[in-house]
Amino acid sequence: MTDTRYGDTFEIMSKANGVPRSAWFRTRRLSTWHRSYAGILLVLDYAAVILADLTAISLLNKATSGIKPPVLFNLLVYLLLPLAWLIVLWGNGAYDRRYLGIGTDEFKRVSRAALAMAAVASFIAFANKAQLSRLSVAVALVGAAVYISIMRYVARKALHLVRRKGVATHRVLLVGTLPEALEVHTAVSRNEGAGLVPVAIHVTEGYSSNSDSDTPVPVYSNREVVPLVREVGADTIAVCGSASAEPGELRRLAWQLEGTGVDLIVAPQLTDIAGPRVHIRPVEGLPLLYVEEPTLSGVAWLFKTLMDRLVAAIGLLILLPVLAGVGIAIWASDKGPVFFRQRRVGREGKTFKVWKFRTMYVDAEERLAALVDQNESDGLLFKIKNDPRVTPVGRFLRASSLDELPQLINVLLGEMSLVGPRPLPAEDGDFLGDVRRRLLVRPGMTGLWQVSGRSDLSWDDAVRLDLYYVDNWSLTFDLTILWRTVGVVLGSRGAY
């Protein structure tokens, strides 16, 4: 199969199509951003290991009164040990392009490499009966893992920034029915950091070229897929929904792509379900996709509950002076009550009264009727960016999220969690349909909605994020959201 539209002959299908061939002669990938990025990671990882070694050496020097280390020691610290780390990281897939730039798999592989290095160090020390400082070895190993993770996190943030400018991305051709392709387009376009940029849609069925439907990218039909990839300048094909289930078609497409350097992605109709719940189990050559139930009980859930109560208790004690200062400022502004309490819906539909610092004037509820027409929210909550009912002190509290701190009382009482869906007022509806699924978990002080835009989000997006959290909850997910909350609060994004 050849493409001669530009006056020359370009081979699309490899002559060795479908036949095993040496890996040394495989065509390079069209998307090449990962090569330079992996090179940067190599340098950063090397520097991180040396930094950890220097930290350990500083402790060792203090314990040995600054004795100058021998040449062999320097060779081990500055060359052999960093190279060993790079080899172990490579062996654990920490430079594999499939795990770079998004998700937690990259950091899981760093953790595995750290465990492997700890095992190797322990074995060498035992075999040689070396008299090593346990503290220095521990600092060197743990410090290396921590420094590597921090530097990779910074590198990932830099990658996401350049991807927002259209650099280091994958140009994707979506293949499937128009509704399925548009759904995948919407999903991948939400996160620019993923680096997937749809450039065209190839419709497999149910589409007329005379259709007047408005689409975000050009739509093609009745075309050969592989030549179309070259025409639109794509380097990745994403097969969407039911198109991936066509008997033999996906396999034949994979054969056609061999030797072209084009990546193949399968996007099944499993929207908003995270990887840990999805498992592929082959049976007689048929890859069966299993979707596990959400984990909303068990040891991990018990640990989450205990952690919530413990952190809330410690937080209230530590923040007591701050809470007292905020309370005095609110009372002094208009001599009104310090706290605002409102009925909210909690886990399994149970109602409770949420604790918040009052940010509005005392007569805010009476003035609400006159402002209904100015509501900027399309959901159950009433929101106005410049709400005239908010006091000057209240504006500061909302921008800094200090008004949320009394909710630690609700967390301590088990009515809320540190992380969870946003608590909605009990008077605003009976939570029918998909929204009711949010009630499977306790509402949270922060959540996926908060770190993704807060009040700037539409109601549909807020519900989607809350449901995603319920369906894909994990302790790691909670810690990630808590970490992202710090940046959101400091930046005052979506707070009004």
Note the run of SSEs as H and E: EEHHHHEHEEHEHEEEHHEEHHHEEHH
Shape: globular
* pLDDT < 50 stretches: 1-16
Strand content: 5-15%
The count of helical stretches stands at: 14
Q: By helix and strand content, what is the structural category?
A: alpha/beta
Identify the quaternary structure here: single chain
Number of strands: 13
Largest sheet: 5 strands, parallel
Average predicted confidence as pLDDT? 80
Radius of gyration, in angstroms, nearest whole number: 28 Å
State the end-to-end distance: 58 Å
Number of domains: 3
Helix % is 40-55%
Please state how the strands of the largest beta sheet are arranged side by side: 5-4-3-6-7
Please provide a brief summary of the model.
By secondary structure, the protein is of the alpha/beta class.
